Structures are given as C-alpha cells and as structure tokens.
Amino acid sequence: MSDRPFPADANEPETVEWAGKFILAKRRGRWEYAGRARGIRAAVILAVDAGEVILVEQYRVPIGRFCLEMPAGLIGDEREGEDALESARRELEEETGYRAAQWQDLGEFWSSPGMVTESYTLLKASGLTRVGEGGGTEHENIVVHRVPLDRVGEVIAEHRAKGNAIDSKLLLMLGSQMLEDAAQ
Fold this sequence. Notes:
The chain is α+β, with helices and mostly antiparallel strands. The chain has helices at residues 84-96, 152-161, 171-183, and strands at 14-19, 23-28, 31-36, 41-49, 52-60, 65-69, 72-75, 98-110, 119-130, 143-148, 165-166.
C-alpha cells in the first residue's frame, strides 16, 4: 500500500446507480464506473502447447465486432463458490476443446482500472490434449485458432485487417517485440 494520501473522492460513499444481473453502474464522488455484480471476476487462460498458443475469436456485442482473444470466462457465474482454476479448466474445454495437464497461476490483473472494477486471474495452461471440438456454448459460436508463437504478430495483423477487434491482453504476446522495436 502506498504511503501517499488518497484523493478526496476515495472517501466518498460508493453508490450503485443501476444494477443488472451481471453488471453494476457505480458512482463515487465525481467518478462513474462499472463493476461485476455479485463479486464475479474472470479467469483468462494463456494456453500454450508445442510452440503454439490457443486463441479464440468470437462476436462481442458491446463493441459490435468479432474479437481475437485468449480463452476466458467468468468465475462463479454458473457455479457458486467456483475458484479461478475450476473456472479456467471448465472454460478451456468449453471454448477450445482442450484440457491441460499443468496449470500455473500468473496473478491477478485489472482490465481497465480507470473505468471498471473487474479483475481477472491469468492462468497458464500447458500439456494440452484435444478432447472435443470447443466452440463454446450454443450461443457463443467461438472459432478456435492454434497459432505458432512466432506468428502471433502476423495473425493479430491479419485479424485487424479483417476488421476484428484485438483484446488488449494479447499485448502479453507482443510485449517484448514491441519493446525491442521501440529501442531501435
């Protein structure tokens, strides 16, 4: 925790302006922001296998576009008391058709801390075995992409050229290359 003083808004009471089944619109002082209802968080999966990463493409209603992203899902949205690892296991198989032999918790991250309170746990899955088709639930229509690690940048560029959105978490796979390019 920082030893710096908090801004004045931090001491204002938080109010819920609107509540839906999954989303809350909140206000604290002059700040308006969104959060997940019922304390729900997300599990995001970095699934790697034999020099390849498993990515998914699905339509995202809030942005009105298909989006390339890592497999992910909400923790506890279907099973109360579910933890991040249980959710990640369920979502990896549901979305991609793979099961993982090894799991590593890489920590908790916040997706857009100036606008939403949602956090996600990033889990690395390896030792993958194909056990089904994937594709998500009947309403998701997910396309699974198995991408060589050395082609991630190209694949992202291809999807962007098609008009697809790119989830910011994919920066994880571009980070070192972007830094190397910036240093030149």
